[in-house]
Amino acid sequence: MNVEAIKIQRTSKILDALHVLDRQASGILLLVHPEGTFERTITDGDIRRLLLSGKTLEDTLAVLPIMQSVVVPEGITRVAALELMNARKLNHLPVLDETGKVTTVLERRELDQQIYLSSPHIGTSEREYVDEAFRTNWIAPLGPNVDGFENELADYVGIGHAAALSSGTAAIHLALCLLNVGAGDVVFCSTFTFVASVNPIIYQGAQPVFIDSEPESWNMSPVALEKAFAWAKREGKMPKAVIVVNLYGQSADMDPILALCQQYGVPVVEDAAESLGAKYKGKASGTFGLMGIFSFNGNKIITTSGGGMLVSEDGDLIKKARFLATQARDPAPHYEHTQIGYNYRMSNVLAGVGRGQLRVLDERVAARRAIYQRYVEKLGHLQQFAWMPEPAWSYSTHWLSACTLDAKRSAISCSDLIQNLADDKIEARPVWKPMHLQPIFRQYPSFDHADTSVAAHLFEHSICLPSGSNMSQEQQDRVIDVIIKHTGM
Ligand SMILES: *Cc1c(COP(=O)(O)O)cnc(C)c1O
């Protein structure tokens, strides 16, 4: 808002005030003393009341009653300003400097803009696929969008087969079922992840063993994995599977991990829920293990509102996954069952959303990478920040831009910075709390990269910043400005 353009003095006529209100469409005028200091605000309602009380358009604003307007000092947070607006039923708040002059006017509709960590970003073609599903009454179950989405995603990542499912968690669960993981079995899993990577191990009555991260990629440490295999060999607890998680849009260092798993003859399930569109040494993330999984939850890089995909080069595994995902119905007209199954398939309507999203995936990856680059560019001078590294072998989507705050150099803690951002209606979060530190998984073994846990250290000192592909440059500047304000030297 142009503050100078809405300043007016008591010597002006009511008619002039109306003209300025009309021209500036500001909804508010600033009545100022001759020396420029602020006196009170004037709204359309104030003028209406003057006219109704018998004043004319030719009267001057001298007839306006003296009134104490609500004003705020510079530096007030967005949340505090909004609370004040709500309490006093206002849509504007003049900000005064120490000399009593208005520096800016806060507007509710501008203040109210929340910046999310990662919100759904719908393109232009999703609706066509969904409309087609409605037009042809292919609402559920399955249908041409499901087949199309499976084929198109398989083509995109360059793998033979894919099964569209109701969630990424369901995909992990089916992968473990297909590997015959059962009661008493052991499954290795990255500790630095979201709980959905681990829960399916428990669903199967198996026991997780947690593998630490390496500092180079924040993902599974081959060193920790080797320690875990040595332990498993000693204890006779060889795992039935290793779940390797690709965090925040970045692949784990797959070559040494696959070599170790091959050496011990253990299949790999790649949890690529967060890394669709990423590459490892030029090959698509999610295609390295015996099976890979993707998620289309609302916060992921593309979304079907909720959904997942299981992929593999092994067509028989994917065929079996589709069977298990549809209640394990044997091919008989009378609903014959010889196995326990699940209701895990994706609906044809949601697959339509997925097909539209897949068409803009490359744009979404480019947008998230650009957001990360911009954070690094604009905040790189702040020595207390270290950005999530991207090794030479990695092409990360930077699904979430994550960074570590060096406690020794930073005057502010991660939680304080997250609170400062929240006060400005900006959503930032701590990184995932490692699974071996979760109350529910504490009793299970875990293996560290070095003498201490790398993941635990990252958890203590790292945060994720807003990274949505639909975030504007102005919104990103808001994030950057708040961070500089609270951490800049
Ligand atoms: C989101 C996510 C999942 C689960 O996907 P859903 O589709 O939400 O079930 C699994 N693993 C990781 C690492 C995730 O981020």
Mean pLDDT rating: 96
CATH-level-2 architecture of the largest domain: 3-Layer(aba) Sandwich
The strand order across the widest sheet is: 7-15-14-11-10-8-9-20
What class would the helix/strand composition place it in? alpha/beta
Total number of beta strands:
21
Distance between the termini: 30 Å
**Principal-axis shape:** elongated
Please compute the radius of gyration using only Cα atoms: 29 Å
| CATH H-tier superfamily of the largest domain | Type I PLP-dependent aspartate aminotransferase-like (Major domain)
Query: What's the number of domains?
Result: 3
Strand content: 15-25%
Biggest β-sheet description: 8 strands, mixed
User: Helix tally?
Assistant: 16
Weakly predicted, low-confidence segments: none
What ions, cofactors and ligands are bound?
pyridoxal-5'-phosphate
CATH class of the largest domain: Alpha Beta
Task: Provide the CATH topology of the largest domain.
Answer: Aspartate Aminotransferase, domain 2
Helix fraction by DSSP (H/I, runs of at least 4): 25-40%
Pfam families: CBS (PF00571), DegT_DnrJ_EryC1 (PF01041)
Family: Belongs to the DegT/DnrJ/EryC1 family.
Cofactor: pyridoxal 5'-phosphate
InterPro entries: CBS_dom, CBS_dom_sf, DegT/StrS_aminotransferase, PyrdxlP-dep_Trfase, PyrdxlP-dep_Trfase_major, PyrdxlP-dep_Trfase_small
